[in-house]
Amino acid sequence: MDSIYFCTVCSSAKGTSLYYGGLVCGGCKVFFLRTVRNQYEYKCKNKGNCSIKDGFIKCRACRFALCLKSNMNPSTVGISRETKCLTKDELPDLLDDLDADRNDQATCSFMIPEDFPVIETDEKSTVSANHNPLKRNWKDRGVEEFDRRRAVVPYLNKSFKRNTELLSTSYLIGKSFIEELKKSGLSATLMAKRLSQLESFCDLEHSMAPINPSFNLDVSLEAAIRDPLALCTRTPMGWAHGRMVCDGMMDIISVIYTRIALHYLDWVSALHELQELDERDKFSLVSSQLCQIELSTMVYNTYKEGKDGLLFASGFHFLPPKGKPKDEFDGFILALSVYMQTEVISKFKELQINAEEYALMKIIGFFTPIVLLSESGATVIQRARLKYEQLLLEYIKETYPTLSEGERQRRMYKIVAINRNLLHLGIMDNSYITKMFSLNMANLQKRFTYDMHLKKY
């Protein structure tokens, strides 16, 4: 059954989605849009103390105040009016076209902090300009058919032909998948360990950090997927080398955002089920799941390293400040870290979740999107989710043989249920990044951030 989301203004479930930075229904979206466009000014007769009756607010002043409280941003209304232009080949004037001036190598679209951490290691570097950590370890994916130079996500290559045979079979559905797995001589434990290894491949923790890494958000999502090094240089994620930061996150967030986005694209490249989706569904799914998946990556590594606060990409460790946050953005990061510690990491600790269970939980979360897909796309996603849920249950059976069937099912349910908290985190994060884009905070008003957080496919 699909999840139902309620409007944060009036509690209605009709057409509720993310509009202008807030999780609201279609009615509140239209009300907010008309108010901002027409520059209406409302006054409350009850001094802002009007109540909600039967899901309806008669006072327009209080309704608009609740819209603002729900993180709806008036500045994004002007941007949304240009979305029709942005769905075409040419982007609007808001995002300058830099293709004519761009060299083959990615350039930095924002300032890199002088104290950007370089993570030293005694091991020799295995990273080259065209390094793809997945190609050496996922040979069964047939990557030789695609662009060897930079295509980390080969299934989005224009020359790739979709294989639709699985759409008419039960190959990916539940029990049949486990039966086929056993017939092949593979175990759920082995499959789960491979998925766990994928995290290590994307982290690049045993590689040398480049001296002058490049970061560039002035690329489209399509370009970044097909040519990921146009987004940024692959650097070690630095989970175990966190440099403590208590404030001033705004100064480094662009670097962190770009690197975690590349980590996400590298991870997505191994999910072969996406080969069965058409281009629109692929872009819709990949863009809609960025925030939830990147936050799950950060929160798990924070748990694994036993840290307080929150570990970010590129070797930064946010610790809650002793006093008040330096600014609004630091306050937002503080709220994220507190929620992660109390609502997610606490559950990780309770379950003592391991790397394999986390890897499967993360994939199940990815294939539980809130974005609307085509009928065929929804079928592929549903089958993929059922496949990995069955794989998780089988893995628990193999790993905890002393548990009863009921105990195994309860453990699986608790693990999968964590994705609900991560979804809430993703919605919070996506809303704030939308605000940052509209106000060009941290110089995030770039093509990639637009494609990921505002563009409709």
From TrEMBL:
It is found in: Nucleus. One of its GO terms (molecular function) is zinc ion binding. Residues 216-457 form the NR LBD domain. The keyword Lipid metabolism does not apply. Keywords: DNA-binding, Metal-binding, Nucleus, Receptor, Transcription, Transcription regulation, Zinc, Zinc-finger. SMART domains: HOLI, ZnF_C4. The keyword Zinc applies. InterPro entries: C.elegans_NHRs, HNF4-like_DBD, NHR-like_dom_sf, Nucl_hrmn_rcpt_lig-bd, Znf_hrmn_rcpt, Znf_NHR/GATA. One of its GO terms (cellular component) is nucleus. Its main location: nucleus. Residues 4-79 form the Nuclear receptor domain. It comes from the Eukaryota. PANTHER family: NUCLEAR HORMONE RECEPTOR FAMILY, NUCLEAR HORMONE RECEPTOR FAMILY-RELATED-RELATED. Belongs to the nuclear hormone receptor family. This is Uncharacterized protein. The lineage of its organism: Eukaryota, Metazoa, Ecdysozoa, Nematoda, Chromadorea.
